[in-house]
Amino acid sequence: MSPSARSISLAAFAAVGTLVLTGCSVTAPEALEEERLGCLISAPAGFDDHSAGALTLEEAELARGAGVFSGTSSQRVSGGSATSAALDRMHRHDCALTTVIGPGGADELADFAAAHPGDLFLGVASGTDDLPKNVLSMDFDLVPPAFIAGYTAATASETGKVGAVVSHGFPQSDRILAAFDAGVDLYNKEKDEDLPKAESYRPSTGGAASASGSPRAIDDTRDAGKDYFERSFASDVDVLVPFGSAAAMGVVASADEKRIDLTTATQGPEVDGEGPSLPKVVWYGTAGGFSKTIVATVEPNVRRGLRTMFPDWPQSKNPDEAAPAPKTGPEEIGGFRVADRRYWGTLDNGGVRIVAEDGFLSRVSDAGRGITDLRERIKSGEIDPEKG
User: Fold this and answer.
1) What is the pTM of this model?
2) Where is the signal peptide (predicted)?
3) In the CATH scheme, what is the code of domain 37-139+303-345?
């Protein structure tokens, strides 16, 4: 294809992207010397997940506005075969950087990138190191935050029962669940003597709480998340910590519905005394303003990760988002200057954090201080988040 024809093809693709791809946004306020598309693929919750998908798309749009890309294109896919088809489609439109978000398409990304060594790819939260050289990766260590989430959930619980769930394939699943349990155990060791102990919920096949129930892993679908919430809440679990994509959205949506039902029912004049325990969620993703059930948030700092990897990404004066100075000079890869091929976000480097939400702080005044204290104890080595 001639340069002029390629330019026309890319311009046409950018113009119709919003009609062809689910959740697309393709605009080019200023023409670059060379057309460069930033393309994104996310499954299964897509870019409305209030987590890594939404954060990465937001950053791609920020980069487009700053001239890093001439346009952006995003597509939600349903599974592995759809990921492969989306990768092939984006390859035909000469995407400069193609990003695949989540572990669901990690294998397809690796295979496609190996077959197209001249293209540049980025895997976000894929949970694997086994990637070709032309695939950059950004992942987050969620084990320490899961420990803090377990302790915080126990603090926030009114029933004494709390639960964590992971979607199948979610990175660090077993370690996340072990850390959550260790956080609950530490709460029980350090709580005031007059407070009841907290229990880490393990659903059995029948749905009842059990000390030796089935693994706490579910399909990454909204229906599975909804079912998990209903089973848990029916067993008096009032604080849930879901890790996943569509499944997590199913949990928080169901928690919102239940909260509305319960608060509406307790507003009648015939209701006396304290109302029922309301569902609460410790969320993995963006700040919890989108849901009144959110009491604390584990936030992956996608912005800091991208700014660390790409020196030409729009930078910030915010110290929580500013990228550290690279130890060595950036290398040129696929037309981009790359400072780090792999970003591993941790509590120590600001790549991931956990914060209490304002509403939660108003009920448990020392929640924010407790989270800060636990974070510092983990950093100092006093606490092993997988053992407590």
Assistant:
1) 0.86
2) none
3) 3.40.50.2300
